[in-house]
Specification:
Layout: E1 5-8, E2 31-43, E3 49-51, E4 56-58, E5 73-81, E6 91-92, E7 94-105, H1 112-118, E8 127-137, E9 140-147, E10 155-163, E11 175-184, E12 200-205, H2 207-216, E13 222-233, E14 239-243, E15 249-252, E16 257-258
Parallel strand pairs: 1-14, 4-6, 7-12, 11-13
Antiparallel strand pairs: 2-3, 2-5, 3-4, 5-7, 8-9, 9-12, 10-11, 13-14, 13-15, 15-16
Length: 259
């Protein structure tokens, strides 16, 4: 296994949703803007429905869409105008823009040898910057990535790997490694990218990690962990991993939020 060289990285836990509540009890402005908002498709057809971490939305603009299907993850921006609702019991999204977000399950290696083998796979592209968004849908975490050498014009996929051994500099918390792989040379106009910074958006299903944590480390619903991502290699060919500056990160799975 290549030697790890750890540098300080950057963790930005970001929240771009402009409102956390759509109630309009105090005669406040009734138009709400959702920007860089992850949603999951609940149903398509004549009455398309998407949901974010708190609400469901009817999106009439997707009624003729033949690409999307239930379960798809989207990175979106849209408007909700409470004064112009088509239904009294459901919010309606207008001006709906979206990109499709890919996802993968967190990898839980059986032992140190299996972990080392994953760090030698073909997920070898360098990541310029990695951020964790302050959103969660079900057991999905959403990350934004900037790749090196202006390669955000290319498509990438990502993996999140748990080191089954507690590392000496980890504060007795498990460490998860993020790695990237280029998958083609064509830009996909419908891929999930942040509207503010153009980051590649990718989601990880961390349900298995939550179960692993509660079975092997602590039964509490609050997990504490470290994140690192591969940022390059040194002159000797050793992998360089940047650590998130906010390590260790706490996440409360009972409330589905960072604690």
């Amino acid at each position: 296994m290549k030697r790890f060289i750890n540098f300080f990285g950057i963790l930005s836990i970001l929240l771009f949703q402009f409102t956390s509540c759509l109630d309009n009890d105090h005669n406040e402005k009734s138009v709400y803007y959702f920007y860089d908002e992850p949603v999951v498709v609940d149903q398509m057809g004549n009455h398309p429905i998407v949901r974010n971490e708190s609400y469901s939305f009817y999106v009439s603009e997707l009624a003729d869409n033949t690409t999307l299907k239930a379960g798809d993850l989207l990175w979106t921006s849209f408007i909700v105008d409470l004064d112009n609702q088509e239904s009294a019991d459901q919010y309606t999204a207008k001006g709906f823009r979206y990109g499709i977000v890919d996802s993968a399950k967190v990898i839980i290696p059986a032992n140190a040898e299996a972990f080392e083998s994953y760090l030698s796979d073909d997920y070898s592209a360098s990541i310029e910057l990695s951020v964790l968004y302050k959103y969660v849908i079900d057991s999905l975490w959403f990350f934004g990535f900037q790749q090196q050498s202006q390669s955000n014009q290319l498509n990438y996929t990502y993996e999140l790997i748990l080191n089954p051994d507690i590392e000496k500099d980890s504060g007795n918390n498990p460490t998860l490694y993020i790695r990237a792989k280029q998958i083609n040379n064509m830009e996909t106009t419908n891929s999930g990218k942040s509207y503010s910074k153009g980051e590649n958006i990718f989601a990880f299903d961390v349900a298995d990690f939550a179960n692993y944590y509660m079975e092997t480390i602590s039964k509490t619903s609050i997990v504490r962990f470290n994140l690192k991502y591969k940022s390059g290699v040194d002159k000797d060919g050793n992998d360089i991993y940047k650590t998130f500056m906010s390590n260790p990160i706490s996440w409360d799975f009972s409330s589905r939020k960072p604690s």
